[in-house]
Write a structure and sequence with these properties.
202 residues, mainly beta, 8-stranded antiparallel beta sheet, two-stranded antiparallel sheet, 3% helix
Length: 202
C-alpha cells in the first residue's frame, strides 16, 4: 500500500463521481489558530492541522491523489467520504468524536450516529459562497469543537458540541479539558474534481 499518490502499475482508472462533493473548513474568525483551516480525515477521525490520510492499492493505475478530504451528502441525511467504493460513512461516536468507517467496512459501530447531517445554503453572502455542514443527531448539538491533541497546542481533533461533551467530557478530549476546545462552524465549498478525492481514507 502507498499513501496519497498515483500508482505506476496495474490496471484501472479513476471512477467518475455520481454526485457533487465538498470540502470543509473551520470557521471562527476570533480563533486564528483554526480559522479557515481544512478539516481532514486521518486515522479514523477528523482533525484540523493534520495531513489527510489515504491509501491506494499498488495494482491500481491512476489513483486519485488522496491529498484532499472531500465528502458527499445523501438525501437521507448521511455523509460519506468521497472515495471510489462509496462505503466510508461519517458518523459521531458515543464520545462525540467525528469519525469515519475504515475502508470496506459497511456496518456502523455500536452507538454510532450517522444521521442527520445537512448543508445549509450560503450562510455568508460574500464570495466564495459557503454552505455550513450541520449535525443534529446527538443530544443538544451546537456546532463543532476543535480540541487540542496536546494541552493548548495543535493539531486539533474535531468533536460535535453535544450537551454531554460540554458538561462531562473532560476525559473524552485528548487534552483532558473541554474548556481548551474552540467552537467553530464547518463551512463547505464544492470540490469540483470529476473523480473521487481518494481511493480510500485511513
Amino acid at each position: 500500500m502507498k499513501s496519497g499518490a498515483s500508482s505506476s502499475g496495474g490496471k484501472g482508472s479513476p471512477v467518475l463521481k455520481e454526485s457533487k462533493s465538498f470540502t470543509i473548513k473551520a470557521f471562527n474568525s476570533e480563533s486564528p489558530e483554526i480559522h479557515m483551516m481544512d478539516i481532514v480525515a486521518s486515522n479514523g477521525k477528523f482533525f484540523i492541522g493534520n495531513m489527510t490520510g489515504s491509501t491506494c492499492p499498488e495494482n491500481v493505475q491512476d489513483c486519485p491523489t488522496g491529498n484532499v478530504t472531500a465528502l458527499q451528502t445523501t438525501d437521507t441525511g448521511r455523509v460519506y467520504l468521497d472515495v471510489v467504493n462509496k462505503t466510508q460513512a461519517v458518523y459521531v461516536d458515543l464520545f462525540s468524536r467525528l469519525r469515519f468507517n475504515p475502508p470496506a467496512v459497511k456496518v456502523m459501530r455500536k452507538n454510532a450516529q450517522n444521521a442527520t447531517f445537512s448543508l445549509t445554503q450560503n450562510p455568508i453572502p460574500a464570495p466564495p459562497a459557503y454552505s455550513a455542514l450541520i449535525f443534529s443527531g446527538v443530544g443538544r448539538s451546537t456546532g463543532y469543537l476543535a480540541c487540542p491533541v496536546e494541552k493548548a497546542t495543535g493539531p486539533f481533533q474535531v468533536f460535535v458540541a453535544t450537551g454531554r461533551l460540554i458538561e462531562e467530557g473532560d476525559s473524552w478530549v485528548p487534552g483532558g479539558d473541554v474548556s481548551d476546545c474552540i467552537g467553530f462552524d464547518a463551512f463547505a465549498t464544492d470540490y469540483t474534481s470529476p473523480v473521487p478525492a481518494a481511493y480510500q481514507y485511513v
